[in-house]
Amino acid sequence: MSLRSYLFVPGDRPERFSKALATAAHQVVIDLEDAVAPDAKIQAREGLAKWLETGLADVDKPRVMIRVNAFGTPWHEDDVKMVRASPVMRVMVPKAEVASELADVAMRCGDGVSLIALIESVVGVVQMRSIAHEKSVSRLAFGSFDYCVDAGVEGSGHELDYVRSQFVIESRFAGLVAPVDGVTLSIDDADLIAADVAAGRRFGFGGKLCIHPRQVEAVNRGFAPSDADFAWAERVLAKLAENPKGAIAVDGKLVDKPIVDRAKRIVASRIVAN
């Protein structure tokens, strides 16, 4: 299934881990970085390691991801060692800026571990192509608010159009799945959350970072093909089956290969999700 919602949970709040897994979030990101104060990071890592060993059910293991502390910080090395000793196979690397650093993180995490490169700076955006082509990176994610601070951008709407397009272009060029959009800070404004999700989808993003369980449903729903999309895709493929070698039209519009490919992706995503 296409992973659409990435729900952060503080790494020093183990009582929330299972609650986060009880939501419909596609990935639960246990955060050892921004969500944990510096003087609590060691204790948080130790508590997480214990929970991963004794409290994580086998069925939930594929849904857990760990955001380690950034490369070069005092906590990074031990975070990665903990990941290597755990059953977790997905890691989010913050402040991603250098492809070789990501390769090094992947090597130390162990075989089979895939990375989400969280790009949060001007340097990261400039280096995005090499980051996206690093073989251990499975997806790009946009740390939009940290990027705005670094770049001096005073707004998170149209001011970021160029950067969002870069995420989509470089992901596609590298053969990655559609990137993950940044967080919406509001947890109670349903209209704003829905609007942000819709905007991200229009740009070509395939998922979104969530900071509260109340955001998850809107993200899952907003990035999934709608019933209307699915019905249209079925009509396209039915017409194609009737006339596989000739020109076809659906709803009064000519259909060519890119349209057929889109229809196939929509139908495939619905089948997998079910």
UniProtKB/TrEMBL annotation:
Pfam families named among the record's database cross-references: HpcH_HpaI
Residues noted as binding Mg(2+) in the record, renumbered to the chain: 120, 146
Superkingdom of the source species: Bacteria
Keywords: Lyase, Magnesium, Metal-binding
Naturally occurring in which organism (per UniProt): Caballeronia sordidicola
Magnesium keyword on record: yes
Name listed for the protein in its UniProt record: Hydroxymethylglutaryl-CoA lyase
Needed cofactors: Mg(2+)
Lyase among keywords: yes
Domain HpcH/HpaI aldolase/citrate lyase: start-end pairs: 4-213
Molecular function via GO: lyase activity; magnesium ion binding
Coiled-coil features, chain-numbered ranges: none
Positions with a binding annotation for substrate: 67, 120
GO BP terms: oxaloacetate metabolic process
